[in-house]
Amino acid sequence: MLCPNCRKEILLIMEYNNIELDFCPACLGIWLDAEELQWILGADFDEKNIFTKSSVDETKKKCPRCRTYMHKVSIPQKEQVIYDVCPNNHGFWFDRGELERLVRDLPEFPGTHSFLQWLTDVFTYRPQEEEK
Ligand SMILES: [Zn+2]
Ligand SMILES: [Zn+2]
Question: What pTM was computed for the model?
Answer without folding.
Answer: 0.90
